[in-house]
Amino acid sequence: MAAVWFSLFLCFGFLFLVLEASIGDRDEIYRTCVKQCEEKGYVGTISITHCKFPPDDAHVNSSWYMQEPLYVEWKHLNCRSECRYHCMMQRETEKEAQGLGPVKYHGKWPFKRVFVFQEPVSAAFSALNLLMHFIGWLSFFILVHYKLPLRPQSKRTYYEYTGLWHIYGLLSMNAWFWSAIFHTLDFNLTEKLDYSSAVALLGYSLILSILRVFNVKDEASRVMYAAPVLAFVTTHILYLNFYDLDYGWNMKVCLVMGIGQLMIWSVWAGITCHPARLKLWAAVFGCALAMLLEIYDFPPYLGYIDAHALWHFSTIPLTYLWWSFIKADAIYRTSTQIRKMK
């Protein structure tokens, strides 16, 4: 459930990045500053070393790696990133002196960096979410493989969805890993990896919700249910990465998949007699409250903490709650299977 909202909010964030792109980067003073920085290699008294490119004939006697196209492209990316950051901070200092409030640049609030971390608080909370998913997945692994009874002959778990939740755990950790990387270093590659990971997690969560709620156990039936969604999600990710990173279209896809599985889980929680249904309701309600942090956006407090960072923090306890429900479901289904065999 936490993964569903993580993916949805990420898609919302990219949509807002387009819709609100942006008062700051339309500022002519800012644009001129960035252009001059990329050409001359400095902003005021700050020298940008990444923007200092040697003359063409100097490459002949330079180290081999400095002649590689990938290294040159990396230098250009860092030059643009550094120029944007220092011009943004310089412009915000000027506006603060005039009594004006902060505005967004390229869809984002002006954050103060800490070393290489462009959004240090969001990156830290993303890392904590990654840790929570790892702890949740590891405790689930220990529960089903070492604490709960195994089938006598095959030594496999009684819980029919063990493998599916293992895949879910790996996809969740992958999504939060790239979220942490993206909030640390924001450029085209990390954006696409973060984006693709979130969409993959959202699509798989939809498949998992269908298989669990409708109690699909047969492997052939699972393939039949999963194949259309898997094919669509794969095609969609390829489309975004190699054809057109269309934020509006992706927002529609995310909404359909996200709302669909939330409705599935919510209706099932209302009609099932599952002993852990209250945990499921709490997860749904908690995620709904957390969504308010994305709707009511505000500038970063002291240049570090904004609404999106607080949302990252709110998903930490929701992740614990969600894995608690998954483990309770494993215990319930295992006990049910053992009773049927007696």
UniProtKB/TrEMBL annotation:
Cellular compartment(s): Endomembrane system; Golgi apparatus membrane
Keyword vocabulary terms for this entry: Golgi apparatus, GPI-anchor biosynthesis, Membrane, Signal, Transmembrane, Transmembrane helix
Gene Ontology terms, MF aspect: hydrolase activity, acting on ester bonds
Signal sequence region: 1-21
A UniProt-annotated Pfam family: Per1
Membrane spanning stretches: 123-146, 158-181, 193-211, 223-243, 249-268, 280-298, 310-332
Keyword Glycosyltransferase applies: no
GO cellular component: endoplasmic reticulum membrane; Golgi membrane
Entry keyword annotation includes Repressor: no
GO BP of this protein: GPI anchor biosynthetic process
Membrane topology: Multi-pass membrane protein
Family: Belongs to the PGAP3 family.
Protein role: Involved in the lipid remodeling steps of GPI-anchor maturation.
Protein name in the entry: Post-GPI attachment to proteins factor 3
The organism of origin for this protein: Dioscorea cayennensis subsp. rotundata
Lineage, highest ranks first: Eukaryota, Viridiplantae, Streptophyta, Embryophyta, Tracheophyta
Gene symbol of the encoding locus: LOC120272549
